[in-house]
Structure formats: C-alpha cells, structure tokens
Amino acid sequence: MVKLIVMTLTQRFYTRTFALYALITDETTNFDAGAPYVLVVPMLPVAAVTLLTFTLVATAIKQNKDINTKREDVLSWEDYFMATAVLAAKRSKDPCSQVGACIVNDDKKIVGIGYNGMPTGCSDDDFPWTKKEKHLYVCHAEMNAIVNKNSADIKNCTIYVVLFPCDQCAKIIIQSGLREVVYLSDKHESKETTQAAKRMFDSARITYRQHIPQNRKTEIDFEEINWDATVQRAPSP
C-alpha cells in the first residue's frame, strides 16, 4: 500500500514537472506517467529528483531566451570595473591577500590592470611569501596597474581596487594624477598605513569611496556562449 502511494505521488510529481517544462518551452513532451522507468524513481534520493526539476526548468528558460530584445540583466559599469579588478586578483600568488586594480578613463575605457606580485624578473619561487618578508619585494596591484597602463596619460582617471590602497600606493596614485579611488574592502582601516593614505588623499583632494556591488557574486561560465548551440546548429541534410 505504501509503495503504491509513493509511486502515485512520484507519477504526479513527474507529470507536473514535465508539464512545467512544456509550458515554458511551448513544446510537448512524450512523458508517460505509467512508463516502467518511473518505478525506479522512489528509490532515488529526494535531492536527485529536485535537481532534475531545477535542471529541466533552467534548461527550458535558457532555451526560451528572447533573442530579439535587448538584455536588461547586464552588469553595471561600476560592477564591471570592480569585477575586472577582482578577476585580475585571481592571478596573484600571494597566499594571504589577492588584490587587483583596474584604471578607467572618462570614456569608460580600461587603461590599466594589475595585481600584487613579485617584480618582473624576480622568480615567484625564489622570493619569500611570508607575511614578515614579502612586503620588502611584492609590487602592489595599484603600482602594477599604473606602470602597465596602455595610455600615455592617466590623469583624472579612476582606479578600482579590491583593497584600500596603502600609504606607498597612495603616493603613486597622487603622483600619477588619478582623481578617484573606488575600493571594495577597507579591512585595514585601523592600520597606520591606511590612515596615512587617507590623510594624503584628503590633502591632495583625491576622492575615495567604497563600492557596493549590486550582486554579491558574478559568475563566469566558459560554456555559457554555447547555450544555443543546438538551436543554431544547421539542420541535417
């Protein structure tokens, strides 16, 4: 009796799941609630059944994208530039803090990117990464973004940086003519180096502000470009 009830509920669950899929995609399904393979479903974990549901629905939504209307769910400019800095930080080999920086001009064009790491020609394997010694050798993200600039002049540009600049980077930022610092984290605000940086920025009239992302996470999916591969594939002859 219990087995019969579970089978009945499972059949209803699958019927409604596939009905939802068909509703989203405007496609009919060949699902047969009485098919033999349904008998094994009660043996599957609930999580697996739930995963199947979300997979079907997500697939349906992706396949039903409106390719004739402008997308609205795009990154804001600020999120885009800060995300670029965060992505650059992924290149850092620093075991403690991975920091990235992105310099942007008035035309919203990126003119410099950098992350914290050893100087060119200084092997990552030969120099120390301990908290006590690394500061003697590591180039910070702001410095690398400035020296790696692809523009002759970065005066009046904005720098987006994952961590609030230290005093040494503040000096370089001021001397480079940057006019604004947009940071993601100020976790070292109580440190003397950070307080010195802010004092110099205030004196040089360089504005600084914290960026609050619209979304906590931004996913990078290397396969997303192929979402409609089956739709655009040429028909078989």
Automatic annotation (TrEMBL):
Keywords: Hydrolase, Membrane, Metal-binding, Nucleotide biosynthesis, Transmembrane, Transmembrane helix, Zinc. CDD domains: deoxycytidylate_deaminase. It comes from the Eukaryota. Residues 76-201 form the CMP/dCMP-type deaminase domain. GO terms for biological process: nucleotide biosynthetic process. PANTHER family: DEOXYCYTIDYLATE DEAMINASE (PTHR11086:SF18), DEOXYCYTIDYLATE DEAMINASE-RELATED (PTHR11086). This is Probable deoxycytidylate deaminase. The lineage of its organism: Eukaryota, Metazoa, Ecdysozoa, Arthropoda, Hexapoda.
